Amino acid sequence: MTRIIHVLLAAAILAAPACDGDTPRARRVLLVGWDGATFDLIDPLVDEGMLPHLAALMESGRTATLESTRIPISSAAWPTISTGRSPGEHGVYSFFAPEAGSYDARLVSAMDVDAPPLWRILSARGRRVNVWGVPITYPPEPVDGTLVGGMLSPFEGDYAWPEGLAERLRGAGFIPDLGIWRQDQLADMATVEAQLAIKERELLDLARRTDWSFSMFTFKSLDVLCHRPTLRLDGPEIRWLLVRLDEILGRLVEAAGEDTVVMVISDHGFARYETVLDLHRWLLDVGHSVPRSDAVLGEGASGNLAERRSAERAARLGQLDLGRSAAWAGACEGPFGSIRLNVAGRDPLGLVALDEIDARVDAITRDLFALELPDGERVVRAVHRGDQLYPGPHAGWTSGAAVPDLIVELREDVQCVAGGFGRALSRRAPFPDHALDGIFVMGGAGVAQEDLRGRLTLLDIAPMVLHTLDEAVPSGLSGRAQPGFHRRNVPVRRIEDTKDESLVPTETAFDGRERAATGADVTSRVQGLGYGR
To answer: Of 121, 207, 279, 505, which is the most exposed, with the fewest CB atoms less than 10 Å away?
Structure first.
């Protein structure tokens, strides 16, 4: 019976208006984001018949493992998805952006994304768009259509376009960032369902309209629940939520119509880790970081998650004698961590001269590769130089570069953190955190069916959306547009970045708006270091 249901749903998806003979042609794209979704969770539910709408897309179209950014973190991943450019090009890597000439950092916002996202490109090309819940979209930029900010949007802020929409949504009880980043709240299951009900109603209203070409709707609730150490990733709460998201997906697909290509994606996956490497503690142990005996740790972390992460970062750096430390630990997530060198001429108390960088990188790499588990297995898989992994204007030895100097890739079953407590390498009860591989599912009008699961990267999504809409793909987008995913299989049209007037710079899109005027400012200030802060 489950198989029959899948076949019938797949047949309905394929029954699109004909064009170019018998091959349907997509008039629009519906991109649905399930933040944190992984096939490890989804495949068993599909096999049980619990996700019929996603299964129908899989049956009629294709699937792929979607490789996230290194590190797999929402702040880097979603701008990479929406712009088709890497963190070295778009300028956002972690949730905090380093301030030039300082050890301080501030919470990122949409104004830090230094590349045009899909909705800006398509709006400039005369296409109407709907964007809802995508992380790092606050403050909202004016678009031809609707934009409701996602993660990092302050609840009381003007987080939606057009003007007045945020106030109406507040009146309906909507929370733009379901989590604890901008407000200290507990997202229990009742809150999750209440927010899904509001969002479902609003999104269906947008999807039923006939005037849009591109809709991108992201659901953050799965990531929020998966982060809870008390919940099993295959437990009843996560199963319930995935079933609920599938129900909403089915209604959105129906509302969008038969001439729509549907993509369901996640920015990263999830896994549970029993072994953990504390990169901050390790740097102290091997001497690349040097402790400061009179460190001022402040009053500890308090407030919402943005304020707590800010305080924790400042306290971690405050433990170091930065005049004697060659490096310090930065953002970590899942089996990935990052390291910044303390570079002379770039950092206020820089210790590593430019001509000593290679030797220091070699020393840190050598020490990392010497890390072993009790069974003798190596902990570290790779050490990437940030400017080589993600080249661009926001990487390298320039002041305020967003991409860290080194990106550490561990075994896939070892979590990387930067906490400074306990031993550098330890075991504990299984703890949930991000994993590299997310999901990609594509079905709908004219999609060529393929049973074999492929592999894509986040950089592929933006060119695929543009090509699906018969739009030219900017030459600076390095991802693959995948024309073979469509039965029409027409060649990809390219346009030089310098000739593409739809690549509106971020400063122009926000009309020179001051970042401080967004109300998003949370700054991590490292106190008492005597370098002018």
So the answer is: 505
Q: Determine the residue type at 142.
A: P
- Where do we find the tokens 């999901």? 439
Q: Which two tokens stand for residue 251?
A: 């209604």
| Length, in residues, of the chain | 533
User: What is d(CA 450, CA 64) in angstroms, rounded to the nearest whole number?
Assistant: 10
pLDDT category at 532 given cuts 50, 70, 90 is very low
Nearest to 189 by CA among 228, 155, 153: 228
Long-range contacts of 340-348 (CB under 8 A, 24+ apart): 340/98, 340/404, 340/405, 340/406, 341/405, 341/406, 343/397, 343/405, 346/397, 346/398, 346/399, 347/103, 347/322, 348/101, 348/102, 348/103, 348/322, 348/529, 348/531, 348/532
DSSP conformational letter for 495: E
Predicted confidence at residue 405, as pLDDT, reads: 97
Which residues is 416 bridged to in the sheet?
Answer: 277
Task: Find the angle CA(115)-CA(120)-CA(121) to the nearest 5 degrees.
Answer: 85
Domain residue spans of the chain: 272-433
When pLDDT is cut at 50, 70 and 90, the band that residue 17 belongs to is: very low
By three-state DSSP, how is residue 126 classified? coil
pLDDT band, residue 419 (cuts 50/70/90): confident
End-to-end CA distance of the chain: 67
294, β-bridge pairs: none
**Measured on CA atoms in the order 236, 240, 241, 246, is the torsion positive or negative?**
positive
Residue 219, pLDDT > 70, answer yes
pLDDT of 516 above 60: no
Pairing label, strands 260-265, 214-219 = unpaired
Q: What amino acid is encoded at 445 in this protein?
A: A
Question: What pLDDT is stored for residue 297 in this prediction?
Answer: 45
Phi, psi dihedrals of residue 16, rounded to the nearest 5° = -100, 160
Residue 26 confidence (pLDDT) above 80: no
Q: What sign does the dihedral 359-360-361-363 (CA atoms) show?
A: positive
Strand partners, 384: 407
Amino acid identity, position 531 = Y
Indicate the pTM of the whole model: 0.93
Distance CA 519, CA 29 (A): 33
The answer to whether 95 and 501 have CB atoms below 8 angstroms apart is no
Longest CA–CA span in the chain (Å) reads 76
pLDDT band at 531 (very low <50, low <70, confident <90, very high): very low
Q: Is the pLDDT of residue 533 over 60?
A: no
Query: What is the residue-averaged pLDDT of the chain?
Result: 90
- And the tokens for 200? 């479902």
Residue 134 near residue 146, CB atoms below 8 Å: no
CA–CA separation, 421 and 399 (whole Å): 30
